[in-house]
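pls read this protein:
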Amino acid sequence: MNFMRAKRIGLAGVAIAMLASAANAQVPATKSNGLKLDIPYNAVAIAVAPLWIAIDGGLFQKHGIEVTTEFAAQSPALVASMLSGETPFAIVGEDAVIAADLSGGDIAIVAAGSDKLPFTIYAGSTLHSIPDLKGKKIGITQFGTTTDFIARYVLKKAGFKPSDDAVILPMGSQANMFTALVAGVIDAAVLGSDVTLKAKQLGTLNPLVSMLDDDMPFYTNALVAKKSWVAAHPNDALNVVRAYLAGVAIAYTDKKATMAAIGKYTKTTDAESLEGAYDLLMRMLPKDQMPKPAALKIDLDESTRPGAKEADPNSFIDPSLVMQLQRDGYIDSLYSNGKMP
């Protein structure tokens, strides 16, 4: 699969330490016969860390699966690849799952990933609160994406009608939004965690609202699977989730290895930045990776897509794999004695 490789945020990389302790499984797994998978992701975001850890630590290989990964800049293209059968798994936000399935797709969230939105709405120096955005231009990446959802959610929460009281403009990428905001082409932008550091350092932009402080659950970087593939390959699917959950556990139990993984894939070496990234990850990443319909319901209620408000939120998730690993005692075993067994 030929996805565009990420243009990582620009510092030299760090090699991740091998996670030898992860090689000792205590719950038997059904081995796959040389299965090769690519599991792409749609954002160079710290919440992708469990996947990076699992790949670099050999956790998929332990179960007979060879996994590669790469950054795919656009969720629609990534989801189209899943629907075509090119790749059965990916890391994407719940908005991409909803968009695909409302159009007849068959993908589902199988592990929650992060359940917080690591986005902040930044504005120019003359704007200081959300009410100041009335009549202003707000940058998002694309219509129907997480940034679009956030802009509309925040405006509605402030009593605005998004389509009438502000101009929401798709800018294509986070980098484009940041450049346009600094240049004054737009008045505000929904910036992700990798760009907010630049906004802070610039010192001339005002943070209006951080979605991390909102209680709303939202799956921003979930592990997503093609339902028909899972049904046809239940043991392989279980092993993919098994390795991913081990990556989540390492994030909690091995800070050094987690920071190394974040540093490698985001090309960050600054110790202070990596400390901040790890602290942010701990705010976003739940140990309980069971996907829940409540998070999807909020998105569906806010969506402008045809059929969204009538859709059953349960149809966009498949908690069965996490449930099985929970029943088997595998998940509890990952945190035994506060470290990987």
Q: What stands out?
A: Confidence is low (pLDDT under 50) at residues 1-30.
